[in-house]
Structures are given as C-alpha cells and as structure tokens.
Request: fold
Amino acid sequence: MEKPYVIGMDMGGTNTVFGVVDARGTVISKSAIKTGTHSDVNLYIQDLFDELIKLIDAAGGVDKFKGIGVGAPNGNYYTGNIEFAPNLPWKGVIPFANLMADKFGIPTALTNDANAAAFGEMTYGAAHGMKNFIMITLGTGVGSGIVIDGKVLYGHDGFAGELGHTTAIREDGRLCGCGKNGCLETYCSATGVARSAREILGSSTKDSLLRNIPVDSITSKDVFDAAMDGDEIAKEIFEYTGKILGQSLADFVAFSAPEAIVLFGGLSKAGDLIMNPIRENMEKNLLPLWRGKIKLFFSDLKEADAAVLGASALAWEL
Reply:
C-alpha cells in the first residue's frame, strides 16, 4: 500500500512541534505540546499520542504513514536513544525511538536537531542534490550537520559534528555550558552576540542605542535593531561575530571540503550584517585551493516549518 505521508517531530526543551508532511515537503498539518510537563517520558509520549493521533486520523490513519522522524537534543541516530540531554526532564539514556514505534505502530528514526536540519536541507532545501555540505544552525547555541558523500556524518558513536564546541578562542575564551572555554557557540550564537555586546559596550566610550537598555537584558535582536538604525557599536558586534565564525568555517572546509556551507537559525535573520563579515573572513582564511569555490548561503526553508521538515526527512529513509 502506498504510504504518502511521514511525521516530522522537533523536540525542544520547552516545546515539541510536530506535523504531517507529504513527499513534496508540504506540511499538511501541525501541532505542538509542552515538552517538560512530565518527569516521566511515558506520560510525555501519552500526551504526544493524544494530540498527534488527531493529525494521523485526519490524514487517513496509521496505514498512510511511512515513518516518524524525530529531531531531539542528544539524539543518537544509531541507537534511537536520547542520551543524557541536559535540557530535557528525563535523565540518562531514553530509548525514545523504540518507545514511539511501540506506541504509534509506525517505524521511528531519531537524530539530533542540527543533523535533522541537514537532512531537511538536503531533501527539501537549497542543498537538494548536493552530496557534500555543512549545515550550521545559529540559535541559542551553534549546531552543525555534516554531509559527506550524501550521508550525514555520525562518527563511531553517533555524536559526530559538534562544531559549535570546537575552540574558537584559545586564550581567555568564554566559559561554555559544556564546561569548556572558548567554544564557537559562546561567540556566534544569539546568546554569544549578547555577550559580545556587553563586553564591547564595557570597553568602549562610544555612544550607542544599546546603552538605553539594561546591559544584562540586551538580546541579539536588540543588537540587530540598533545596527539597522546605523548604530556603530552594534555593527562592530556583528563584525566581531562574523570574523570569528568566518575563521572557523575556513577550518571546517579544510576538514571536509564541502561544496557549500548553509547557515540557518535566528541569527541568520541579520542578513548581510552577519553574512558579509563571515564571507570575508572565511575567504581570507581558506587555503588558496578553496578560495572562491565554497558556496555560502542562508537556508531557504521556511523557518516556521523547517524543524518539522528536517525531522520528517529522516522518516523517508525508513
């Protein structure tokens, strides 16, 4: 029997968004539940079932679905387990894919959120047809999905591709939530931009619109709004962020020689403010044999649906 649909599910620390997706990448229907309501994962799955089964039934029932794809923090594609995710209420190793398959009667695949984004970009987005690219997600943290020869890179244990935790600054680098110092995500995430704003404002005497905001309340959006109004300090913050990310991207190119690097996530909304310094500093730091050859662009997936689409792309592989 033809199975025209899959389910894509994006699990965050606060909310879980899920939807029914067809083979063209159209999100037919979508809903959400709170992630952290229950400390027992089985109660969470029951809540999920109660809401998701409505979408499944409306699309013709379980027999119409090829699979469920899940993007989750610390999701291990090899095992289907969520392993020691710090931002989820269930600790230890959770056999999440098996629990889902048993509950819904639909095969389930799981990976982490950045790898799911890479799947989505390769299946539905601007990287369609590419066999070698890197997806960088710029949100609260910095995530990455690495595609080599048409396959997402997982490494021996399922957790390869933590480029956000490569060391961008070696001397007096910022403390990261992972426990290391100088990680890329402490500089090039939305929270990293806010940290840069506090540092640069503290070391400069220049006037800035950002000085009208309590320093501990400044967000990356505040920096963007100020930059769009011509604020020189705000522009400097984006230049600094783009310089660090561009230098790191040049290192990533040396590792996997991608055809393209795709940027996705909230920080990409800054457009040329962030893209221009990234591109300039990446090109400056590339080996000559790659200069001018590596495509660099923002994802063209619709942001509201991208997480669901990325996760759903996993399910077509089942």
Observations:
- The radius of gyration is 20 Å.
- DSSP finds nine helices and 13 strands in the chain.
- The CA atoms of residues 4 and 23 lie 7 Å apart.
